[in-house]
Amino acid sequence: MLAGAALLISLLSTILCSVSVAAISSDDGSYELSNGNCTAPEPRDLVHMEHVQKVAIPFVTREERVTWYGDEKIYCVLVTSCNGETHSKVKLLRGGAGHTFVDLEVHSSRGYGFAYNVRIFGKE
User: Fold this and answer.
1) What is the mean pLDDT of residues 86-102?
2) Domain housing 23
3) How many structural domains comprise the chain?
4) According to the UniProt entry, where is the signal peptide (predicted)?
């Protein structure tokens, strides 16, 4: 039952956020993030999914931190934009692929918001 729900959530996320994933390329972050072996993650290996959204406020930058700790060893972290907005960055602060934790930060440009889906895949 739980595996079926995870599969459904993963499929819905893919449909709602059908955008390409770009690999992180610099220390200051990237528009989207793919960390680890994310070529074909198994839906049954989805250990965490979270939707992160902040609305735009004029003259204000928006930030959100996403942290996950678990028993599974992470092999893929995918952070994909839902609205195609390119005025925000995702940064991997700690952990990620090869670890049992991940700490991410999403930061928008002044006057912009963001909407991202965070998916973490891992195995014991």
Assistant:
1) 94
2) 2-123
3) 1
4) 1-22
